Amino acid sequence: MEQKLRVGVLGATGMVGQRFISLLEDHPWFEVVTVAASERSAGKTYESAVLDRWKMASPMPESVKGLTVLNVNEVEKVAATVDFVFSAVDMTKDEIRAIEEEYAKTETPVVSNNSAHRWTPDVPMVVPEINSEHFEVIEAQKKRLGTTRGFIAVKPNCSIQSYAPCLAAWKEFGPKEVVATTYQAISGAGKTFEDWPEMEGNIIPYIGGEEEKSEQEPLRVLGHVKDGQIVKASFPKITCQCVRVPVLDGHTAAVFINFEKKPTKDQLIEKLLSYKGYPQEAKLPSAPKQFIQYLEEDNRPQVKLDVDFEKGMGVSIGRLREDSIYDYKFIGLSHNTVRGAAGGAVLCAEALTSKGYIKAK
């Protein structure tokens, strides 16, 4: 790319916003030129607005420290400075839906980490390796919004990334029933142990809204485009429990699965290892070379050993074995704030750019 696209980050001071800033440092296609947040941060430099709330392991990039934080609600002002935006705003769902559409109507593409538009029929919710063809609905969305280049695209919930890729890889075997329990890191709630010390040595058996998302969102990802909207898949039937555990980064899933056909273990592993999609074919900058790895050791995957596989963009699977009630069971692991949040959105933006949906204004 001859000239980098100008990027804005909405909600730049929060944890996911910070992850966007961190991941976009030295990106070959994108350059963060604008940071926007709530009115209380507006007018400050990014460094002073964040202060000691920087939660990333790597230092704050020098290139953003001096950027003046804009008010995210001053949509026209923010949009005028960028080619597209990443959205990680912390608002109510109704407010998010409204402000993301407002940005799109300024002819500014919005790639969102938020859940507000995940079930809007003409908004694609994409894991680029699985369903990049869903971007086709953007043309119908533009007609609804009355735009020529502005639109909204979203990535799915972080909790499904550790098992939904397996369902895609095993599609030919007809996954029909899935029972999953996810063990979710505290960064998924935007927390660290410093600001949530009561999570140390603790487990909370409830995360608001997560079970519904974990049961339904994979079906939308596995669905198809029809008449300008996404139609979700009918199978597999999924039931899920979501548990908060004392881990900083990394969502683990324990999964039981039944198939229409009866694959062998070797067939299932081969499909995982050979599975690839548009990001690998197009050699997108953030694409993992190996999307899914399979680990043979009985004690893998582990958060400490495997969460950063492929810089956090890969998925780790292990302990695949036959079950006495279901056909098979396995353990999955994904990085919730990289693949599951900002990194997944960056990969979506790369795919959208590669396919011509995002261009310089």
CATH topology of the largest domain, by name, is Dihydrodipicolinate Reductase, domain 2
Strand order of the biggest β-sheet = 3-2-1-4-5-6
Q: Summarize the biggest pleated sheet.
A: 6 strands, parallel
Number of helices: 13
CATH first level of the largest domain: which class? Alpha Beta
Tally of extended strands?
A: 14
Low-confidence stretches: none
The CATH architecture category of the largest domain equals: 2-Layer Sandwich
Give the H and E element order.
Answer: EHEHHEHEHEHHEHEHEEEEHHEHEEH
Give structural notes.
The protein is an alpha/beta fold. The chain folds into two domains: 5-157 and 342-354, NAD(P)-binding Rossmann-like Domain (Rossmann fold, 3-Layer(aba) Sandwich); 159-335, Dihydrodipicolinate Reductase, domain 2. It is 28% helix and 22% strand. It is built from 13 helices and 14 strands. It has helices at 15-23, 46-50, 62-65, 75-79, 93-104, 128-131, 138-145, 164-169, 210-221, 265-274, 278-282, 303-306, 338-354, and strands spanning 5-10, 30-37, 70-71, 84-87, 110-112, 152-154, 175-184, 224-226, 229-231, 237-244, 251-259, 292-295, 315-322, 328-334. The chain has a six-stranded parallel sheet with strand order 3-2-1-4-5-6, with helices on both faces. Strands 10-7-11-14-13-12 form a six-stranded mixed sheet. Strand 1, helix 1 (15-23) and strand 2 (30-37) form a beta-alpha-beta unit. Helix 1 packs across helix 13 (338-354). It is globular and about 60 Å long.
